[in-house]
Amino acid sequence: MLEVDSLVMDFGGFRAVDRCSLKVEEGTITGLIGPNGAGKTTLFNIIAGALFPTSGHVRYRGEDITGLASDRRFHKGLVRTFQIPHEFHRLTVLENLMMVPPQQAGESLFANWFQWRRVKGVEAQTERRAHETLRFLELSHLAQERAGNLSGGQKKLLELGRTMMTDAKLVLLDEPAAGVNRTLLRKLEEKIATLHRERGYTFILIEHDMEMIEKLCDPVICMAEGRVLVEGDFAHVRSDPRVLEAYLGETTGEAA
Ligand SMILES: Nc1ncnc2c1ncn2[C@@H]1O[C@H](COP(=O)(O)OP(=O)(O)OP(=O)(O)O)[C@@H](O)[C@H]1O
Protein backbone atom coordinates (compact mmCIF):
# COMPACT_ATOMS: atom_id res chain seq x y z
CA MET A 1 0.00 0.00 0.00
CA LEU A 2 2.84 2.35 0.88
CA GLU A 3 6.40 2.14 -0.30
CA VAL A 4 9.18 4.38 0.90
CA ASP A 5 12.23 4.14 -1.27
CA SER A 6 15.67 5.42 -0.29
CA LEU A 7 14.35 8.54 1.42
CA VAL A 8 16.82 11.16 2.50
CA MET A 9 15.96 14.26 4.53
CA ASP A 10 18.69 16.76 5.21
CA PHE A 11 18.22 19.72 7.53
CA GLY A 12 21.17 21.92 6.68
CA GLY A 13 24.16 19.69 7.27
CA PHE A 14 22.21 17.22 9.41
CA ARG A 15 20.76 14.05 7.88
CA ALA A 16 17.57 13.15 9.80
CA VAL A 17 16.44 10.41 7.39
CA ASP A 18 19.19 8.44 5.75
CA ARG A 19 18.28 6.31 2.71
CA CYS A 20 15.28 4.87 4.50
CA SER A 21 13.28 2.21 2.66
CA LEU A 22 10.24 0.34 3.90
CA LYS A 23 6.92 -1.13 2.79
CA VAL A 24 3.56 -1.11 4.50
CA GLU A 25 1.09 -3.81 3.48
CA GLU A 26 -2.59 -3.01 3.21
CA GLY A 27 -4.60 -4.23 6.21
CA THR A 28 -1.76 -4.11 8.72
CA ILE A 29 -1.12 -2.05 11.81
CA THR A 30 2.56 -1.29 11.41
CA GLY A 31 4.42 -0.07 14.49
CA LEU A 32 7.25 2.41 14.05
CA ILE A 33 9.56 2.49 17.02
CA GLY A 34 13.07 3.72 17.70
CA PRO A 35 15.01 5.92 20.09
CA ASN A 36 14.54 9.68 20.27
CA GLY A 37 15.86 11.38 17.18
CA ALA A 38 15.70 8.21 15.03
CA GLY A 39 13.80 10.11 12.33
CA LYS A 40 10.31 8.65 12.86
CA THR A 41 8.41 11.95 12.94
CA THR A 42 10.41 13.31 10.02
CA LEU A 43 9.49 10.19 8.05
CA PHE A 44 5.81 10.68 8.99
CA ASN A 45 6.00 14.30 7.87
CA ILE A 46 7.35 13.20 4.51
CA ILE A 47 4.71 10.48 4.09
CA ALA A 48 1.95 12.95 5.00
CA GLY A 49 3.33 15.61 2.66
CA ALA A 50 4.23 18.13 5.36
CA LEU A 51 7.87 17.87 4.29
CA PHE A 52 9.39 17.13 0.91
CA PRO A 53 12.43 14.86 0.99
CA THR A 54 15.89 15.81 -0.19
CA SER A 55 15.82 12.66 -2.32
CA GLY A 56 14.00 9.35 -2.59
CA HIS A 57 10.39 8.41 -3.32
CA VAL A 58 7.08 7.73 -1.60
CA ARG A 59 4.56 5.54 -3.42
CA TYR A 60 0.99 5.12 -2.25
CA ARG A 61 -1.23 2.50 -3.88
CA GLY A 62 1.15 2.35 -6.81
CA GLU A 63 1.29 6.12 -7.37
CA ASP A 64 4.39 8.23 -6.84
CA ILE A 65 3.20 10.89 -4.37
CA THR A 66 6.61 12.27 -3.43
CA GLY A 67 5.81 15.79 -4.65
CA LEU A 68 2.07 15.75 -3.91
CA ALA A 69 0.65 18.38 -1.51
CA SER A 70 -0.67 17.10 1.82
CA ASP A 71 -4.30 18.01 1.06
CA ARG A 72 -4.17 15.94 -2.13
CA ARG A 73 -2.87 12.99 -0.10
CA PHE A 74 -5.70 13.54 2.39
CA HIS A 75 -8.24 13.29 -0.44
CA LYS A 76 -6.68 9.98 -1.44
CA GLY A 77 -7.34 8.60 2.03
CA LEU A 78 -3.85 9.10 3.46
CA VAL A 79 -4.57 10.81 6.75
CA ARG A 80 -2.33 11.91 9.56
CA THR A 81 -3.84 12.32 13.02
CA PHE A 82 -3.01 13.97 16.26
CA GLN A 83 -2.05 17.25 14.66
CA ILE A 84 -4.53 19.45 16.42
CA PRO A 85 -5.76 22.41 14.35
CA HIS A 86 -6.19 25.92 15.82
CA GLU A 87 -9.97 25.74 15.72
CA PHE A 88 -9.94 22.65 17.89
CA HIS A 89 -10.14 24.26 21.30
CA ARG A 90 -12.86 26.78 20.56
CA LEU A 91 -15.24 24.46 18.75
CA THR A 92 -17.47 21.85 20.32
CA VAL A 93 -16.67 18.18 19.95
CA LEU A 94 -19.46 17.78 17.40
CA GLU A 95 -18.28 20.80 15.39
CA ASN A 96 -14.76 19.43 15.37
CA LEU A 97 -16.04 16.34 13.64
CA MET A 98 -18.33 18.19 11.29
CA MET A 99 -15.62 20.46 9.94
CA VAL A 100 -13.48 17.53 8.83
CA PRO A 101 -14.99 16.25 5.58
CA PRO A 102 -13.04 17.60 2.62
CA GLN A 103 -14.82 19.86 0.16
CA GLN A 104 -17.81 20.48 2.40
CA ALA A 105 -20.58 21.75 0.17
CA GLY A 106 -21.36 24.60 2.57
CA GLU A 107 -17.90 26.07 2.15
CA SER A 108 -18.45 27.08 -1.45
CA LEU A 109 -20.13 30.42 -2.04
CA PHE A 110 -21.64 29.12 -5.24
CA ALA A 111 -23.03 26.08 -3.47
CA ASN A 112 -24.43 28.23 -0.66
CA TRP A 113 -26.34 30.54 -2.98
CA PHE A 114 -27.51 28.24 -5.70
CA GLN A 115 -27.58 24.74 -4.31
CA TRP A 116 -28.90 25.22 -0.82
CA ARG A 117 -31.01 22.05 -0.89
CA ARG A 118 -27.96 19.98 -1.69
CA VAL A 119 -25.90 21.83 0.94
CA LYS A 120 -28.53 21.15 3.59
CA GLY A 121 -28.58 17.49 2.57
CA VAL A 122 -24.83 17.17 2.86
CA GLU A 123 -24.83 18.95 6.22
CA ALA A 124 -27.49 16.64 7.61
CA GLN A 125 -25.52 13.63 6.35
CA THR A 126 -22.33 15.00 7.92
CA GLU A 127 -24.09 15.56 11.23
CA ARG A 128 -25.47 12.02 11.21
CA ARG A 129 -21.99 10.67 10.52
CA ALA A 130 -20.56 12.81 13.34
CA HIS A 131 -23.12 11.45 15.81
CA GLU A 132 -22.42 7.88 14.69
CA THR A 133 -18.71 8.54 15.19
CA LEU A 134 -19.33 9.88 18.71
CA ARG A 135 -21.39 6.80 19.54
CA PHE A 136 -18.61 4.54 18.30
CA LEU A 137 -16.08 6.42 20.43
CA GLU A 138 -18.45 6.51 23.43
CA LEU A 139 -18.18 10.31 23.47
CA SER A 140 -21.82 11.19 22.72
CA HIS A 141 -22.27 12.79 26.14
CA LEU A 142 -19.55 15.31 25.23
CA ALA A 143 -20.98 16.36 21.84
CA GLN A 144 -21.62 19.95 22.93
CA GLU A 145 -18.51 20.28 25.12
CA ARG A 146 -15.74 22.59 23.94
CA ALA A 147 -12.97 20.38 22.62
CA GLY A 148 -10.44 22.39 24.64
CA ASN A 149 -12.04 21.07 27.85
CA LEU A 150 -11.45 17.41 26.98
CA SER A 151 -8.84 15.32 28.74
CA GLY A 152 -5.71 14.26 26.83
CA GLY A 153 -7.17 10.82 26.15
CA GLN A 154 -10.53 12.16 25.03
CA LYS A 155 -8.71 14.48 22.60
CA LYS A 156 -6.89 11.49 21.13
CA LEU A 157 -10.20 9.65 20.72
CA LEU A 158 -11.64 12.70 19.02
CA GLU A 159 -8.69 12.87 16.65
CA LEU A 160 -9.30 9.23 15.79
CA GLY A 161 -12.93 10.18 15.21
CA ARG A 162 -11.84 12.89 12.79
CA THR A 163 -10.31 10.20 10.58
CA MET A 164 -13.66 8.41 10.64
CA MET A 165 -15.29 11.50 9.12
CA THR A 166 -13.11 11.03 6.05
CA ASP A 167 -12.79 8.03 3.83
CA ALA A 168 -9.44 7.22 5.36
CA LYS A 169 -7.54 4.24 4.01
CA LEU A 170 -4.11 4.69 5.56
CA VAL A 171 -3.95 6.46 8.90
CA LEU A 172 -0.71 7.72 10.43
CA LEU A 173 -0.95 7.85 14.22
CA ASP A 174 1.70 9.93 15.91
CA GLU A 175 2.25 8.78 19.50
CA PRO A 176 -1.41 8.12 20.29
CA ALA A 177 -0.61 6.92 23.82
CA ALA A 178 1.27 10.06 24.88
CA GLY A 179 -0.48 11.84 27.76
CA VAL A 180 -3.37 9.34 27.92
CA ASN A 181 -4.42 7.72 31.21
CA ARG A 182 -4.49 3.93 31.43
CA THR A 183 -8.29 3.59 31.22
CA LEU A 184 -8.63 5.72 28.10
CA LEU A 185 -5.55 4.07 26.65
CA ARG A 186 -7.31 0.69 26.71
CA LYS A 187 -10.33 2.29 25.02
CA LEU A 188 -8.14 3.95 22.39
CA GLU A 189 -6.44 0.62 21.66
CA GLU A 190 -9.80 -1.10 21.39
CA LYS A 191 -11.10 1.55 18.94
CA ILE A 192 -7.98 1.35 16.77
CA ALA A 193 -8.27 -2.45 16.69
CA THR A 194 -11.98 -2.24 15.77
CA LEU A 195 -11.36 0.28 12.96
CA HIS A 196 -8.66 -2.01 11.63
CA ARG A 197 -10.70 -5.21 11.92
CA GLU A 198 -14.14 -4.02 10.94
CA ARG A 199 -13.52 -1.07 8.68
CA GLY A 200 -10.33 -2.20 7.00
CA TYR A 201 -8.15 0.75 8.01
CA THR A 202 -4.43 0.35 7.59
CA PHE A 203 -2.44 2.08 10.32
CA ILE A 204 1.13 3.15 10.87
CA LEU A 205 1.72 3.99 14.46
CA ILE A 206 4.70 5.79 16.00
CA GLU A 207 4.80 4.86 19.64
CA HIS A 208 7.11 4.69 22.63
CA ASP A 209 4.57 2.69 24.65
CA MET A 210 5.75 -0.87 24.02
CA GLU A 211 2.62 -2.39 25.56
CA MET A 212 0.53 -0.69 22.91
CA ILE A 213 2.95 -1.74 20.17
CA GLU A 214 2.88 -5.34 21.36
CA LYS A 215 -0.91 -5.44 21.53
CA LEU A 216 -1.68 -3.80 18.22
CA CYS A 217 1.22 -3.95 15.80
CA ASP A 218 2.45 -6.52 13.34
CA PRO A 219 4.91 -5.88 11.84
CA VAL A 220 7.06 -3.61 13.95
CA ILE A 221 9.77 -1.52 12.33
CA CYS A 222 12.58 -0.17 14.45
CA MET A 223 14.37 2.90 13.11
CA ALA A 224 17.72 4.25 14.26
CA GLU A 225 19.82 7.05 12.85
CA GLY A 226 17.38 7.77 10.05
CA ARG A 227 16.96 4.29 8.65
CA VAL A 228 15.35 0.92 9.27
CA LEU A 229 17.35 -1.12 11.72
CA VAL A 230 15.17 -4.21 12.25
CA GLU A 231 11.73 -5.30 11.05
CA GLY A 232 9.52 -8.21 12.06
CA ASP A 233 6.97 -9.18 14.67
CA PHE A 234 7.24 -7.61 18.09
CA ALA A 235 9.02 -10.56 19.73
CA HIS A 236 11.59 -10.65 16.95
CA VAL A 237 12.28 -6.92 17.03
CA ARG A 238 12.34 -6.74 20.80
CA SER A 239 14.90 -9.53 21.12
CA ASP A 240 17.25 -8.19 18.44
CA PRO A 241 20.49 -7.04 20.12
CA ARG A 242 20.79 -4.11 17.67
CA VAL A 243 17.46 -2.74 18.90
CA LEU A 244 18.50 -2.95 22.51
CA GLU A 245 21.79 -1.32 21.68
CA ALA A 246 20.09 1.51 19.77
CA TYR A 247 17.88 2.25 22.75
CA LEU A 248 20.59 1.85 25.35
CA GLY A 249 22.77 4.20 23.36
CA GLU A 250 20.07 6.75 24.21
CA THR A 251 18.91 7.68 27.68
CA THR A 252 16.52 4.80 28.37
CA GLY A 253 15.93 1.15 27.57
CA GLU A 254 12.36 1.66 26.40
CA ALA A 255 12.41 -1.33 24.06
CA ALA A 256 13.43 -3.70 26.82
N1 LIG B 1 13.15 21.03 11.09
C1 LIG B 1 14.27 20.48 11.57
N2 LIG B 1 15.45 21.14 11.51
C2 LIG B 1 16.59 20.57 11.97
N3 LIG B 1 16.65 19.35 12.53
C3 LIG B 1 15.51 18.65 12.63
C4 LIG B 1 14.26 19.17 12.17
N4 LIG B 1 13.30 18.24 12.39
C5 LIG B 1 13.93 17.19 12.98
N5 LIG B 1 15.23 17.43 13.14
C6 LIG B 1 16.23 16.53 13.71
O1 LIG B 1 16.13 15.31 13.03
C7 LIG B 1 16.33 14.22 13.92
C8 LIG B 1 15.17 13.29 13.81
O2 LIG B 1 14.04 13.89 14.45
P1 LIG B 1 12.63 13.21 14.52
O3 LIG B 1 11.73 14.14 15.26
O4 LIG B 1 12.22 12.77 13.19
O5 LIG B 1 12.96 11.93 15.42
P2 LIG B 1 11.96 10.95 16.15
O6 LIG B 1 12.44 9.57 15.89
O7 LIG B 1 10.56 11.26 15.79
O8 LIG B 1 12.21 11.30 17.67
P3 LIG B 1 11.19 11.31 18.91
O9 LIG B 1 10.90 9.89 19.22
O10 LIG B 1 11.97 11.98 19.98
O11 LIG B 1 9.98 12.10 18.49
C9 LIG B 1 16.51 14.82 15.30
O12 LIG B 1 17.90 14.87 15.58
C10 LIG B 1 15.93 16.20 15.17
O13 LIG B 1 16.56 17.11 16.05
TrEMBL record:
GO cellular component: plasma membrane
Alphabetically ordered keywords of this record: ATP-binding, Nucleotide-binding, Transport
MF-aspect GO terms: ATP binding; ATP hydrolysis activity
Pfam family, one: BCA_ABC_TP_C
Superkingdom of source: Bacteria
InterPro entries the UniProt entry points to: AAA+_ATPase, ABC_AA/LPS_Transport, ABC_transporter-like_ATP-bd, ABC_transporter-like_CS, BCA_ABC_TP_C, P-loop_NTPase
Domain ABC transporter stretches: 2-250
SUPFAM superfamilies named among the record's database cross-references: P-loop containing nucleoside triphosphate hydrolases
Coiled-coil positions: none
PANTHER family in the record: CONSERVED COMPONENT OF ABC TRANSPORTER FOR NATURAL AMINO ACIDS, CONSERVED COMPONENT OF ABC TRANSPORTER FOR NATURAL AMINO ACIDS-RELATED
Family, similarity comment: Belongs to the ABC transporter superfamily.
Protein known as: ABC transporter ATP-binding protein
